[in-house]
Specification:
Blueprint lengths: L15 H11 L2 H7 L13 H5 L13 E3 L7 H17 L2 E5 L5 H15 L3 H5 L11 E4 L14 E6 L15 H25 L16 E8 L11 E5 L4 E6 L5 E5 L2 E4 L7 E4 L8 E4 L7 E8 L29 H8 L19
Parallel strand pairs: 1-2
Antiparallel strand pairs: 2-10, 3-4, 4-5, 5-12, 6-11, 7-10, 7-12, 8-9, 8-11
Helix pairs in contact: 4-7, 5-7
């Protein structure tokens, strides 16, 4: 049926490492499998039975992630205070919230989703030219599963990454098929993130520019995730459950659905809202566990904007001194962006999280 040796193997007989290498060397990702007519999920993507059997349930009730309306945020101090309180409350309780009426044009959001789709659905040869697992040295790269050789099971997902972890952006390194919309979208994202950082600073009792002046929004990466239709979605995931190690993540998703957030020990579906942006907070505000399921229909597109700080910066991040005291001592130690990201890429996605930086005496 196929030239892919890993597509016809059974869970008990296949040589996992060799099959991972065979998949990797094709450089066509999960979409390449689907285009090749795969009818079953290859074993390298099948989650271990013990993991599937321990899976938490999904809340069937109408519990929604908080939605915060920015429509009138600049009209009065009272309106700003209302939004600040809503953001802090959602960040502490959920670590997750959606923003509507954020002034980023709906047309641009739709164009970004379409640009991501166009990249992944172009000819394989164009994508193979930038296929790479060397995330740090390349501004733009295409790959499937950054933790392919470290995870228990590969995720049903391909990704195009574009990063400015050194603070520099070279438009010529972007694929022509999505260059213009990506640059426009990133420009809006940096401004939007700084607005969120100001509101978070105010909510934490800091000067409005406190978090923005840490320069964390100047080092970022953009992911364009592509989740093809899956023939056996119950056997795999689009993204394993994890907590982001970024300062902040802004997620744009299409209308297919599949994103879930762990809340009160159960998975809650994050239903798509047209024009909404999803914010994942971190630190003193809850660092939330979330994942993506896959569907038998598709593809699904999501575009996370990760705010990480400069990779090579000597700046050290840690607990905000204005928010700590003898009564409220630091829980985490200080670290650099380089240490944070190096740890991230050394582990399976479901093994990482901010707890790595907890002070030993408190862990």
């Amino acid at each position: 049926m196929s030239n892919y040796p890993f597509m016809n193997e059974t869970q008990s007989s296949y040589d996992r490492i060799n099959n991972l290498k065979a998949f990797d060397e094709e450089k066509t990702g999960v979409k390449g499998l689907v285009d090749g007519g795969v009818e079953k999920v290859p074993s390298i993507f099948v989650r271990p039975l013990e993991d599937r059997s321990k899976d938490l349930g999904t809340n069937a009730e109408n519990i929604g992630v908080p939605v915060i309306d920015f429509a009138h945020v600049g009209e009065s101090d009272g309106q700003i205070d209302k939004v600040v309180n809503e953001i802090i409350s959602a960040s502490k309780k959920w670590g997750f919230f959606q923003v509507i009426n954020h002034e980023i044009p709906l047309e641009l959001l739709e164009k970004m989703i379409e640009g991501a789709r166009m990249f992944h659905e172009q000819d394989d040869e164009a994508k193979k030219q930038i296929y790479s697992r060397d995330f740090f040295s390349k501004k733009a790269s295409f790959l499937s599963n950054h933790d392919l050789y470290k995870s228990k099971a590969a995720n049903w997902r391909d990704t195009f990454y574009f990063n400015a972890l050194t603070g520099e952006v070279d438009p010529q390194e972007l694929p022509p098929i999505c260059k213009d919309v990506t640059l426009e979208y990133v420009d809006h994202m940096v401004k939007f993130v700084n607005n969120i950082l100001q509101l978070l600073s105010m909510g934490l009792g800091l000067k409005p520019k406190h978090l923005e002046e840490l320069d964390i929004s100047k080092g970022w990466s953009l992911g364009c995730h592509y989740y093809p239709a899956c023939p056996e979605p119950q056997l795999t995931l689009g993204t394993n459950g994890h907590a982001d190690i970024t300062f902040l993540t802004v997620l744009l998703q299409d209308q297919v659905g599949g994103l879930q957030v762990l809340h009160e020990n159960q998975w809650v579906n994050v239903e798509p809202i047209t024009g909404a942006l999803i914010i994942v907070s971190n630190g003193r505000l809850k660092s939330v566990y979330h994942r993506s399921t896959v569907n038998s229909v598709g593809p699904r597109i999501s575009v996370p904007f990760f705010v990480q700080g400069f990779f090579s910066s000597k700046k050290i991040y840690g607990p905000i001194k204005e928010l700590t005291s003898e009564e409220n001592p630091p829980i985490y130690r200080e670290f650099s962006t380089e240490e944070n990201l190096t740890h991230f890429f050394s582990k399976s996605l479901d093994e990482i999280g901010i707890d790595h930086f907890k002070l030993h005496s408190l862990s």
